Amino acid sequence: MSDFMFPVENKSRVAPWLQPIWDALDFTKLPHAILLHGQAGIGKFSFAVELSKALLCETTDQPKPCDHREACHWFSAGNHPDFIALVPETHRKFLPQAKFGNEDVIKRSKSTRDDSNGETSEKKEKKTISIEETRSAIEGLSIGSHRGGMRVILIYPLELLRPDSANTLLKSLEEPPASTVFILLADRIDRVLPTIRSRCRLLAAPRPDRIQGLAWLKSQLLSIAGLKIKDSDIETIYDEQGGAPYAVLDSIIARHHQDEKDELTLSIAASRILLQAMAQGGRIAWLETTEKVHKAPIGYLLATMQRWVSDIQAVSQGGEPRYYPKHLATLQGLALAARAQKLLAFWKSLIQARRSENHPLASRIQMEALLSQYQQVFEG
Asked: 329: Cβ–Cβ under 8 A, 6 or more apart, which residues?
């Protein structure tokens, strides 16, 4: 691996709460694999993209990335030959220029799925990183970098790798190619193979405190032309999203552009319906609610339910709600009506459901079962 003689700095594109991680990186002694993990929507991906750009920057007389030389221009345009990003189809929109990655392999992989397995299989595959893409990326490492310098492979989200793809990656981590850095990102590190975790330097990405996160979010929203939103609404969405500023920013932008087909917009709408139903406690119309929300991503629905139940538990113990402070009165009423043992059992059911959320057998049936169990929490 090549050494770096000059410091790498970034004071604008890295989220301020992630800046300490950036500053602590020793770019003269980087490991062959970095695993950055933490809550979704807090800026890990932007951090990883900027780190990739810095590693590929070819300047020798100033901090990296310089944003001036050819390598940086190529990177920004999505054309750098020594940068490979492996992400599922559902996450391509998060890539700069939406051009990074092995496009030919992606097209061939999709065509193969359409021809052999039909529409149902294609939908099933699009949330994972195919083995064809992974093998193509790994096999290409043996021929050396195109520009004779560093090569970077970014994989996100790491926990969505299929088992066969994960095993292919593991082989490369065990015998890493020269001058190659793997930047791996995970929202849920508990779902990453222990054998992969053990071969990476683990970096825990913190969530910002509420004041810092809201200040950053509001500063970003100022640059959006024509956006009109009250501070109180921003704060409500921020809390509901679990204090994840990037996720909140994406959701507000999607709503501003009235993109009703955007997955995040659909998820937020389903979340609101779910919360309104759960606020009814034992009177919840769980079949009707399931019918309205089951098409939203199951992971998003489960996270909403976990946050709501977490607030009920906090209030029942004399604490303050973290995610839904504006619903304090409702939460207090539910906390009084809930049966403690049943609430705990429901919480455990949610945890179990989240462990298999990427491979649900039938999300509709799962939601019906969970909401029915939630209703029973308030029954004697």
From this structure: none
Please state, in angstroms and rounded to a whole number, the distance separating the CA atoms of residues 128 and 87: 8
Average pLDDT along the chain, 380 residues, taken 10 residues at a time? 36 83 87 94 93 86 77 82 84 63 40 37 56 80 66 90 86 87 93 93 95 94 83 88 88 71 73 93 94 88 94 94 92 95 95 77 86 91
CB atoms within 10 A of CB 107: 10
DSSP string, 43-63: SHHHHHHHHHHHHH---SSS-
Neighbour tally for 232: CB within 10 Å: 9
Amino acid at 277: A
The Cα–Cα gap between 18 and 47 comes to: 8
Distances from the Cα of 125 to the Cα of 44, 138, 174, angstroms: 24, 20, 27
pLDDT of 264 reads 66
Does the domain made of 19-204 have the CATH classification 3.40.50.140? no
Confirm if 140 and 92 have CB atoms less than 8 A apart: no
* CA 35 – CA 185 distance, rounded (Å): 6
Sheet holding 83-86, edge to edge: 83-86, 151-155, 180-186, 33-37, 201-204
Please give the Cα distance from 137 to 169 (Å, whole number): 10
In this structure, what are the phi and psi dihedrals at residue 184, rounded to the nearest 5 degrees?
-110, 140
Is-contact 27 53, C-beta < 8 A? no
Are 64 and 57 a contacting pair, CB within 8 Å?
yes
Give the integer Cα–Cα distance in Å for 14 and 2.
Answer: 24
**Fold match, 19-204 / 263-380:** no
Q: How far is CA 89 from CA 92, 102, 140, in A?
A: 5, 12, 21
User: pTM higher than 0.90, yes or no?
Assistant: no
Domain boundaries, given as residue ranges, for the chain: 19-204, 210-259, 263-380
Looking at domain 263-380, its CATH architecture is: Up-down Bundle (1.20)
